[in-house]
Amino acid sequence: MQSAVAGAVASSPAAAPSSSKMIGIQVGAVSFVDEGVPKVLDIFQESAYINTLFVATFTYGRGIAGRQIPGQPLPDHGKQEYDADTFKGGSYTKIHPQYYKDTVIKDFRAPDFGDYDVLEAVLPEARKRGIKTICWFEDVWSANVPNVSQAQEKRFDGSNATTLCFNNPNYRNWLLATVEDYARSYEIDGIMWGSERQGAFANALGASHGGNGGGVARTTCFCQFCEAKAKSRGIDPARARAGFQALGEFVAARKRPIDGYYVTMWRLLLRYPELLAWEMLWTDSLRETYAAIYSKVKSIKPSLGVGWHIWHNNSFSPIYRAEQDLSELHKYSDFLKMVMYHNCGGERMASYIRSVGQNIYGDVPSQELLDFHYRVMDYKNEKPLADIPKTGLSADYVYREAKRAREALNGTKTLLWPGIDIDIPTSAANSKSTPDGTHDAVAAALRAGADGVLLSRKYSEIKLANLRGAGAAIKAAGLA
Ligand SMILES: [Zn+2]
To answer: Under a CB-based contact definition with an 8 Å cutoff, are residues 142 and 313 in contact?
Structure first.
């Protein structure tokens, strides 16, 4: 009799969530500091049946850490003030120096909350509730980090970029040290890293949202490590430089060449195949970084899940989508968070179209250019260019993207967790998240066969009504 009672206690309501799919949310340290760990977890469980936390453990960016971005409306929870003066960024966990012997980057602790370690604060309560915790860190740096200049990329014009080079041992070793620190120091369930960047060719064209028509001077990377790696692949760095010089003149001209933009672009590619070789060098370096992180974590604790945040540009640029080759990425991915942010997606798609409409597609009227992209990216029910910033992309976009990615991953071990947009900032006049829109996006991802959903980008910008919209779709799918 006694054992039966003990069994009943063990399966009390606080035990593991019932959902078979991953229901995750991204959350930064500031929310736990401002609102308290139990209260935040209560809200997550009650509003959206969350079973996995993606805790922002390292970044110098505001996309996943800090409170609401100043100028954007504060959500209906948390401290009702902005942190423009107190947000600094860095590591929100303690740094265990024994892991950082092979890099000059050693001093990157976020000063925002003193000695506060977000994993120490969150893990006990999360484990008690059966909620998993994944360390979520990203490729966003500050130029003020001591010694970081020794790991920075080199721009085409010879100056240092604020981005770090995957082929620089100081950065590669820092990445491996950081995941070793997480895997050995904390009882976590997994690690996700994200890099929202691309190679020099795509950057020169401005082939992304926010690309602003491109330009060559500030594109990367042309450092000694990348040049040495290029040579080892049979690429002549001098030929690549000549190609980027010519591409820079083409992009900067903002004037129709005699044979037109598209033809002239092809002439450049035919004359300088090194432009694409340099792009692939960067892409392969990112893949090698993924693979190195994956095998490092697995060598320490095979049970930890390791995966990647895949940048939203995957939804806009055919070049970037071609680089996200899931038949390659699955080899070192337990999961992929592929960004499918429907609401801000309209504003971002329009921004991408404006950017590439200034060079490679300069001959194509912008609505025709958007229609072409809808065709080649296989979007069927999206609105005209003038409307999408104000409407966002549709739930059908989420469905199509999730279905495509899930099919591409079939037969592999890799789980697909679409990133769902809740209240990601847009311009004041543009589309804002709604409970119904959020509901429909989550429902679409699950209907397409996704293995879970990841509510993004950070709880500190999310309105509770929209979070409940996600929860309603999760419940309706039988996952609550
Ligand atoms: Zn480099």
So the answer is: no
What phi and psi values does residue 320 have, to the nearest 5 degrees? -65, -40
Nearest to 116 by CA among 90, 134, 143: 90
User: Tokens for 119?
Assistant: 């994993």
Beta bridge partners of 335: 307, 415
Tens-place pLDDT, residues 343-396: 999 999 999 999 999 999 999 999 999 999 999 999 999 999 999 999 999 999
Task: Report CA(150)–ligand 1 centroid distance (Å).
Answer: 11
Contacts of 398 (CB under 8 A, 6+ apart): 340, 342, 418, 420, 441, 444, 445, 448
Residues of the chain with pLDDT under 70: 1-19
Give distance in angstroms: CA of 228 to centre of ligand 1.
9
Give the distance (Å) from ligand 1 centre to CA of residue 167: 5
